[in-house]
Amino acid sequence: MTNNQNKPGSFTQSGTDIEEVKRNNANSGLTFNEVKQLIAKTVGSEQAEFGSEPNFQDQQKKK
Predict the structure, then answer these.
(1) Are 37 and 44 in contact (CB under 8 A)?
(2) Is 9 left (phi over 0), alpha (psi -120 to 50) or beta?
(3) Which domain holds residue 36?
(4) Contact (CB, 8 A) for 20 and 1
(5) Under 8 Å between Cβ of 36 and 50
(6) pLDDT tens string for the chain (63 positions)?
(7) Alpha-carbon torsion angle 41, 46, 47, 50, nearest 10
(8) Is 2 part of any domain?
(9) Does some domain include residue 11?
């Protein structure tokens, strides 16, 4: 992080570089909701509901 705190609008009051945070967020990977959707597609629709317990024994029988 560079020390450009004199540049208006690019830093928060606490000194956080807003543009750096945006760049890091863009490169951080999947969001929580994207992970939930991926798991739902992988496991199947019977367990697509978030918070439901996966039944690994049933999944192994299907293979």
Answers:
(1) no
(2) left
(3) 18-44+53-62
(4) yes
(5) yes
(6) 455 555 666 999 999 999 999 999 999 999 999 999 999 998 875 555 556 666 656 655 655
(7) 90
(8) no
(9) no
